[in-house]
Amino acid sequence: MNPLLEIENLRVTFPTPRGDLEVVRGLSFTLGRERLGIVGESGSGKSMTGRSILKLVRAPGRVTADKLTFDGIDLLTRSERQMRPIRGARISMVMQDPKFSLNPVMTIGEQIAEALLTHQRLPRREVNNRVLTMLESVRIADPERVAKLYPHEVSGGMGQRVMIAMMLIPEPDLLIADEPTSALDVSVQAQVLDIIDELVKRKGMGLIFISHDLNLVSSYCDRILVMNTGEVVEECKAGELMNAKHPYTRGLIASIPRLDETRTELPVLDRSAWAKK
Amino acid sequence: MTALSLKNLDIFYGEAHITHDVNLEIADGESFALVGESGSGKSTVLKAIAGLAPEWTGEINVFGKPRSHGIDRAFSRQCQMVFQDPYGSLHPRKTVDATLGEALTIHGIGDRSARIEEVMSSVGLDRKFRFRFPHQLSGGQRQRVAIARALMLKPKVLLLDEPTSALDVSVQAEILNLLKRLRQEQNLTFLMVTHNLPVVSFLCDRLAVMRQGRIVEVADVADLKRGDLKDPYSRELMHISAAHAN
Amino acid sequence: MTTLRDWLIDDSPASPMQARLGRFYRIFGALMHNPLAVVGAIIILVLVLTALFAPWIATHDPLRQALGERLLPPSAAHWMGTDELGRDIWSRVVYGARITLAIVTLVAVLAAPAGLVIGVAAGYFGGWVDRILMGITDIFLSLPKLILALAFVAALGPGIENAIIAIAITSWPGYARVARAETMTFKNSEFISAVRLLGASSLRVNLGHVLPLCTSSMIVRVTLDMAGIILTAAGLGFIGLGAQPPLPEWGAMISRGRSFILDQWWVATMPGFAIILVSLGFCFLGDGLRDVLDPKSGEQR
């Protein structure tokens, strides 16, 4: 079976007054219908990787790659216009904060319906049913009431579930979730991630889960890429993260405090250890 | 001796009743955590103590003296606050030097240059950062500046509002180590608000769990480490946190 | 030259002065990358230089009448021709730059600080202070600018000084609105809370911390408004309530040239051209400044 997404030697560059700055440096991976986690700290290039798959890197940023194909489609040669039927319909993206991603002057129902209608023609009643079913599947108890609400009338967790509903209603093949739960409380976080997990499994989608949270990613993904300053420093199965080899990954794991913490001082990353290489 | 004591504290934002009957005693030199989810009122308690949420009833005592509803200079020498967002807590047009020197100017304290450099070195900031603007600093460096600003007046109590939740984990470790060291060196009392139980486990001695404006449990951190919290809601928070770590 | 540049862009300045100059250098550099802003800056620079060196640039005495040389078309002797009293239009336009510059500078100096202080006070204190101050502001804003200026000049008496005062009175409410909006976004920010917690007085918080944040948007707003101020001044001059004859004010000059517009087009066109050019210059510069100074987009680069 063909891989869903193939990336070879992806580079994202931004010009600065002091020369070009490469934020993603030669990233390569293939993705099947699986759950891939990309972990890294701020500035590691993880979000830019997600954006460049959808070609959402804004000028003056430049994206180059030897290969960037999605389901046999070469994304590199696609124009902005040709990308449109792919975005949303085949590859969707859930962003960090629902407050900035939802249109404040449209009801939730209208927004979800629009996400569906942009890519398909459907009769009105059918649309309505699909919207309500979708809201139900992200575990919103009374979808009919919620569909009539405006984004400011719902909580953060509910907003994020609405975002997920919006992104999943066109039934994409690949979902890119960029820090989908960072703005949420831990208890809500778990619910939202369970919903994504369930839908991904049921519909057989591919998932790219981008986060700064090692533990979170390892418990929701099959495979993990650890990024640091634009490069992948570690690639492993999620369960084997604790046996990571690279000093960066090990340092990162060690620096997280534990619930039963006994250390008097947390180990700090010695960035000079591998920066020279 | 008691550093901070809250008695029957009810805080309001206009019509909204945020906390109900909060009672706490925090000893001098203790590190105390207030944990809870968003909307639990934990940050509001901190703001009321600092003087940023002036509508409250009940009592707030600092070292035995009742606190007024406003902000006065005597109080600001005893108690300072570190904010959550290192990107929002520094004035974008002021250099590190100006930000730190402001406290000295307000209180008419001389010896400016020496004191700024002393505090900068105690929070681990190199001298070369002294005349930089915030946009020339990383998140961790900004948070160090914010901590340094809070220490300029040599306060006894430090209120910490999620001081590391906006930082990367590797930077979080550095800041947590710093806070721990500063507390030992300067014999500070911490009141920290957070949702992160492992951070509490590392930095604090006792914790109070808040839910919907009420304290549901006060416990020793040793209990948290053993997984021995009593209240069902605290146990739920603890279990989510534990599950998350594995 | 390279050493000065290195000193300016040094990441670790050694003094507050170096830090501040470095910041101005970066803003200046960013501005120079915007072609329209450069054009605007050059126009304004030319205006200032013309005003400063008017006696050397002008070819004739702007007030000297030569009735034998009335209404001559542009030629080598009179680059922009002469007006109905035989005065050299080029020299009058050059001296007019002084008047225009004086008007915009004085209006900016009078109106911007007043608007800034009123707006910051209203935004920071809120409540009844806000209601009263903004009520007054709204009254001024609800009247058309030129009409209001007209009313003031009519009350104060015609003349260039009164025109300046009238324009200043009509332009502060706009600045107060901007300053208030800016203040409201900043007043609950954590860095303002932090300064309050240090024990700073309201006066100190406002003057030392809130006001500096409003100044950049104020500079942008004032620069963009300059065109309007010049046009209002010209408008007042045109209807005879601004600068009085024989002062070479551009608006008044157009007014005089109106009667000959069909046969001697240059009399009204030349000062009109100067007005358009200078207005455009301020607009271009203001747009460029906005891109550079806007706290939301600038400074991050």
TrEMBL record, chain A:
Look up the domain of life of the source: Bacteria
| Keyword line | ATP-binding, Nucleotide-binding
Official protein name in the record:
Peptide/nickel transport system ATP-binding protein
Write down the species: Ensifer adhaerens (Sinorhizobium morelense)
Lineage of the organism: Bacteria, Pseudomonadati, Pseudomonadota, Alphaproteobacteria, Hyphomicrobiales
Automatic annotation (TrEMBL), chain B:
Q: Which domain of life is it from?
A: Bacteria
Protein's name in the database: ABC-type dipeptide/oligopeptide/nickel transport system ATPase subunit
Automatic annotation (TrEMBL), chain C:
Signal peptide positions are none
One GO CC term of this entry? Answer: plasma membrane
Q: Where are the transmembrane segments?
A: 36-58, 99-125, 146-171, 226-245, 265-286
Principal location class: membrane
Q: What is the membrane topology here? A: Multi-pass membrane protein
Q: Which InterPro entries match?
A: BP-dependent_transpt_permease, MetI-like, MetI-like_sf, OppC_N
Please list the GO biological process terms of this entry: peptide transport; protein transport; transmembrane transport
Q: Which domain of life is it from?
A: Bacteria
**Any idea which UniProt keywords this protein has?**
Cell membrane, Membrane, Peptide transport, Protein transport, Transmembrane, Transmembrane helix, Transport
Does this entry carry the keyword Flavoprotein? Answer: no
Q: Could you tell me which CDD domains the record lists for this protein?
A: TM_PBP2 (cd06261)
One protein family per Pfam: OppC_N
Cellular localisation: Cell membrane
In terms of Gene3D superfamilies, this protein maps to: MetI-like (1.10.3720.10)
Ranges for the ABC transmembrane type-1 domain?
97-286
Sequence similarity: Belongs to the binding-protein-dependent transport system permease family.
Q: Known PANTHER family for this protein?
A: D,D-DIPEPTIDE TRANSPORT SYSTEM PERMEASE PROTEIN DDPC-RELATED, OLIGOPEPTIDE TRANSPORT SYSTEM PERMEASE PROTEIN APPC
How is this protein named in the record? ABC transporter permease
Species in which this protein is naturally found: Ensifer oleiphilus
